[in-house]
Amino acid sequence: MEDIKDIEQRILEEVSKASDLKALDEIRVSAMGKKGEITEMMKTLGQMSADERIETAKKLNLLKSAVEEALSKRKDILENEALNAKLACEKIDVTLPCRPETQGRIHPVSKIYEEVAAIFGELGFEVAEGPSIEDQFHNFNALNMPLNHPARQMQDTFYIAHDKDKPFEMDDAYVVRTHTSGMQIRTMENKKPPIRIIAPGRTYRSDFDATHTPMFHQVEGLVIDKTTTLAHLKGCLYDFVKAFFELDDIPVRYRPSYFPFTEPSAEMDIGCLKTKTELKIGAGNDWLEILGCGMVHPNVLKAGGIDPDEYQGFAFGVGLDRLAMLKYGIPDLRTFFESDVRWMKNYGFAPLDFSSLTGGLSNNGGQLR
After folding, report:
1. Which domain covers residue 143, as residue numbers?
2. Of 58, 250, 277, 318, whose CB has the highest number of CB atoms within 10 Å?
3. Cα within 13 Å of Cα(356), Cβ side
4. 247 in any annotated domain
5. What is the distance between the alpha carbons of residues 225 and 221, in angstroms, rounded to a whole number?
């Protein structure tokens, strides 16, 4: 019978010469499998005397440990070699420039979002985000919109039932938010004045034509403290439109209007020149409506848990899609959501065109024609 030391030396030599993981596993099975060489030797221990069995078992256990350790080390080496070989075959030269026809673009709405956030960030506003599915308190009731308000009718608002197995009750249903104004209430509920936030995000209404879509983007602004006046609102919005359209001066006017959550309310117009083929912002004798605004209604402050006798503030809302259409000359709102790569190539922005007031909002237009 071959000596245990000789067996150990032979097996360890075979392990060291194993060229791949498959060959290594075959050695493991032949040595330590159910019918392996070491396993068969362990089975003979019962036929030995007590003293001989103790001595032989000790040697076999040492042999088994030495083989297991050698197999583990060799396996690690072979796995690393296999991985390195695979990486060498599959390597990619990341220094090569991407092909122009496959380069991605930033959507104009995403670009406008960055621009608006950059402007109001410089003015000290924080960005507040909230849920797309709202309860009717935050979407309507708290914003001074009673149950009989026209905006709450089903032809204008998307309702979601609480329980599909129960009869639908509109007064008790959730809504897919019709504006981001609900974030005004949520902010007032969770933050003490002074408050200065913008709330950009997707909103949803039942409408569809060249200037309206069922899903669109909006940004709301809210300022609340003890001294804010209508003059502060006008100054804030004037600074915003100047920075956004990148003009040193721009004519603006405010027309009285009505919104249930502000009092007094107004619509802001900017000066422009309209022709059959062109719309030029900041010049001419024409006017273009751009946003709605006003002083926060006392009922809205109360709904948000703020005392209207001590605090006051202003709010405004503007469509991000509309801003994109005006600034970058996009005629039809519906094309924003058609996923046409040709449209994106024409109106999209390079991925590294970051928006900032110091570096330029639109980077000289930013468009890649």
Report:
1. 108-347
2. 318
3. 5
4. yes
5. 14
The predicted structure's pLDDT at residue 11: 87
Q: Are residues 196 and 250 in the same domain?
A: yes
Q: Where are the alpha helices (DSSP H) in the chain?
A: 4-17, 21-32, 37-43, 50-89, 108-122, 136-139, 182-190, 230-245, 298-303, 320-328, 341-347
pLDDT value at position 363?
57
Q: Which token pair is 148?
A: 């009989």
The CATH number linked to 114 is 3.30.930.10
Give CA torsion, residues 130, 126, 360, 358, to 10 deg: -160
**51 and 157 fall within a common domain:** no
Are 177 and 242 within one domain? yes
Query: Is 94 domain-assigned?
Result: no
- Split into its structural domains, the chain has a count of 2
Residue 247: Cβ-neighbour burial (10 angstroms; 0-12, 13-18, 19+):
middle
How far are the Cα atoms of 35, 122, 215, 245 from residue 336, in angstroms, in the given order?
Answer: 70, 28, 11, 20
Specify if 329 maps to a domain.
yes
Cβ-based neighbours of 307, under 8 Å, separated by 6 or more: 301
Which of these, 354, 319, 328, 120, lies nearest to 239 by C-alpha position?
120
Four-residue CA torsion sign, 318, 324, 326, 332: negative
Does 194 score more than 60 pLDDT?
yes
* Residue 92, phi then psi, degrees to nearest 5: -125, 135
Domain closes at, from 26, 54, 89: 89
Helix (H, G, I), strand (E, B) or coil at 345: helix
Ramachandran bin of 23, using left for φ above 0, alpha for ψ from -120 to 50, beta for the remaining angles = alpha
| 167 and 129 part of one domain | yes
User: pLDDT (tens digit, 9 = 90+) per residue, 128-182?
Assistant: 988 888 888 888 889 888 777 666 665 578 878 776 666 556 667 788 888 898 8
Looking at residue 288, what DSSP letter applies?
Answer: E
Q: Are residues 78 and 205 in the same domain?
A: no
Q: Tell which residue, 334, 329, 326, has the closest CA to residue 367.
A: 329
Q: How buried is 272 (Cβ within 10 angstroms: 0-12 exposed, 13-18 middle, 19+ buried)? A: buried
Do 139 and 182 meet the contact criterion of CB atoms below 8 Å apart? yes
User: So what's the pLDDT on residue 64?
Assistant: 86
CB of 113 within 8 A of CB of 320?
A: yes
